[in-house]
Amino acid sequence: TKVLTDAAIRGKVDHLLGLKENVIIGQLIPAGTGLQKYRDIIVTEESEDYHINEKEKTKSKKKKEKEKEELEVI
Fold first, then answer.
1. How high is the mean pLDDT of the chain?
2. CB within 8 A of 24, min separation 6: which ones?
3. What are the residue ranges in the chain where pLDDT is below 50?
4. What is the pLDDT of residue 57?
5. Are 16 and 1 spatial neighbours (Cβ–Cβ below 8 Å)?
6. Inter-residue contact 19 to 12 (CB < 8 Å)
7. What is the pLDDT of residues 53-71, one digit of tens each?
8. Which residues lie closer than 8 Å to 2 by C-beta, 6 or more apart?
9. How far apart are CA 64 and CA 56, in angstroms?
10. What is the SS3 assignment for 63?
């Protein structure tokens, strides 16, 4: 708040780079999805990582089922 007050009194320009200043003004904070480089990203489809994880889960599940069947046979 000191930065904003000083800017207002002295007619200075404040580029609002800090977290508190942006919260007070009600703008997106300069972090996470508020970063400029993330604002223009358009998500179009699921990433390959999601599909890989699903395949691994399926393999793991099948492996556990097979182990369970082997234990039942014994």
1. 74
2. 1, 4
3. none
4. 77
5. no
6. no
7. 677 778 778 888 888 887 7
8. none
9. 12
10. helix
